[in-house]
């Protein structure tokens, strides 16, 4: 349930444990400032054995970075109206990123989960964090950096020049081995805009901070990977050339090089293991009837998945086997490989660092 502003302040006033060790001396709703510049409330706090101070309060039902950014100018105006006023935000929950943004601007805050950061220049500093969000409906972003939703951010990184329309973005994704709806893209773009990660005008949709978007994608991928059930099958092979030839002759993109094997193909790592994503393990067993199951020491690993995110923007590369035979191999793109490497500790993140400059330049084919 999403709380309204009136409900937020009522819960706050009636729950002293939220702002302990502070005490409320006085509380006023909408004090009479000039027409447009008016806080939601003015509260006078005191601290046992210490001074009292007055805060100008803005109440936020959802404290997204964009909303916080818009509040800053208002809060500054409030403080100018009073000599000793302290700007403060009260919300159901303030996340880590929002807390950092508020601290950077010198804005105090308290949430209904018992977290707080109150600073009165030269007098008081109180910080209490770590309490979990009791109001999940107030979370501004819900897994938009995971699964199909993550393709929006990936596409924006691939094309730093941006997209003219939302439909151009949809077509870009769907033309690269993935499937996403216009509705999903619209919802994700709205959340990205609230997080101030993208710029959306009438004529252009583009990334503001590519590095931050990549970091959020990594966080989402790692979280998703921990919950995802992986169906992996190991086999022993004696002749690498036979496997590579069969992969080359197989239906395009039924098999996809990933992990450290993809990193090896891209010249970023060394490995003796071949790791391949497959859409149908039974079909793979039939096509590779010369391999032997070996769950313990197998050097060929098939991972069964129908997740289109793995195949998104994948490309076909030409390899030379035994210095003679040339074969074609489908390989995950740089962003997918970066995410896989970030989740594959301890070696993977080192490979990911090599990929990062290429990704942030927004290289893509077509």
Helix and strand topology:
Blueprint lengths: L4 H9 L9 E7 L11 E6 L5 E8 L5 H17 L3 E7 L4 H9 L3 E4 L4 E5 L3 E5 L21 H9 L7 H9 L7 H13 L3 E3 L4 E3 L2 H18 L3 E6 L3 H10 L5 E3 L1 H7 L8 E5 L2 H7 L4 E2 L6 E5 L3 H4 L3 E7 L3 E7 L2 H10 L4 H13 L6
Helix pairs in contact: 4-5, 4-7, 7-12, 12-13
Describe this protein's structure.
With about 375 residues, the protein is α+β, with helices and mostly antiparallel strands. About 35% of the residues lie in helices and about 25% in strands. It has 3 domains: about 130 residues, Trna Endonuclease, Chain: A, domain 1, CATH 3.40.1350; about 80 residues, Winged helix-like DNA-binding domain superfamily/Winged helix DNA-binding domain (Arc Repressor Mutant, subunit A, Orthogonal Bundle); about 120 residues, no CATH class. It is built from 13 helices and 16 strands. The protein has a 7-stranded mixed beta sheet. The protein has a 5-stranded mixed beta sheet with strand order 11-12-14-10-13. Strands 8-9 form a two-stranded antiparallel sheet. α7 packs across α12. The model has no long low-confidence stretch (mean pLDDT about 85).
CATH topology descriptor of the largest domain: Trna Endonuclease, Chain: A, domain 1
Estimated share of beta-strand residues: 15-25%
Weakly predicted, low-confidence segments: none
Helix proportion range: 25-40%
Please, what is the oligomeric state?
Answer: single chain
Total separate domains:
3
Give the overall average pLDDT.
87
Strand order in the sheet with the most strands: 1-2-3-4-5-6-7
Annotated CATH architecture of the largest domain: 3-Layer(aba) Sandwich
**Order of SSEs, N→C?**
HEEEHEHEEEHHHEEHEHEHEHEEHEEHH
Helix and strand composition category: alpha+beta
CATH class placement of the largest domain? Alpha Beta
Count the DSSP helices. 13
- The separation of the N and C termini measures 45 Å
